[in-house]
Amino acid sequence: MSSSDTGSGQTARPEATARKTATPKEMVAIGTLCAAVGLYFMLVGAGLLPIPGGPKNLHAPLWIVFFCGMPFFLGGFAVLLQGFGKANEQGELPATAPHWMRVGQYLIGVAIFASFAIVGSWIALAGEAGQFSGFGGVTIARVAFGIGAIIVWLCTIGFAVSGARKLRAARQGQAS
């Protein structure tokens, strides 16, 4: 029996590669790329750049395009913030990080959740009926997106409340 034979006739696979934390340079590159993609869609949504393929390709108001780009922009900015703030693998900043970085993380998280909730709400309430397809039709799709939007709004509120409490506790801990 070979060293890689498990005895059951199957060959054990060696571990692919150990997970490694992104280096600060990698975080800057990833963050910059995500932020640039998001910024592009935010600028299209703001009417400052042309709509790719022209207005006939637009199936939502420009403000929805803006909110579709915002999570990418803010997510990229969050990666940059974590890289510069020397966050750990869980994204937690060290105790020595300035308070404004923690506030920035919190506000970015709230804004990302809110962006998802806004887009889901618009799809549920006002999305073009002709864009829905598949099992159940328009009504099922609107109900599904509506339920999803409610869940994301609740997550937004929960994240906002939890983050505010953590920020307040951290601020009070610094004052002591």
Key features?
mainly alpha, globular, 176 residues, 4 helices
Q: What would your notes on this structure say?
A:
With 176 residues, the protein is mainly alpha-helical. The protein has two domains: 69 residues, no CATH class; 78 residues. Helix content is 64%, strand content 0%. Helix 1 runs antiparallel to helix 2, helix 2 runs antiparallel to helix 3 and helix 3 packs antiparallel against helix 4. The chain is globular, with a radius of gyration of 22 Å. It starts with 23 loop residues before the first helix and ends with a helix.
Produce the secondary structure layout.
Layout: H1 24-45, H2 62-85, H3 99-126, H4 137-175
Helix pairs in contact: 1-2, 2-3, 3-4
* Computed structural class: mainly alpha
Rg measurement, Å: 22 Å
- Global mean pLDDT: 86
Number of domain units: 2
Taken as a percent bin, the fraction of beta residues is under 5%
What oligomeric assembly is this protein in?
Answer: single chain
Low-pLDDT ranges: none
Number of strands: 0
Q: Main beta sheet: strand number and arrangement?
A: none
Give the helix tally: 4
Q: Name the overall outline.
A: globular
Brief account:
This protein is 64% helix and 0% strand. By secondary structure, it is mostly helical. It is globular.
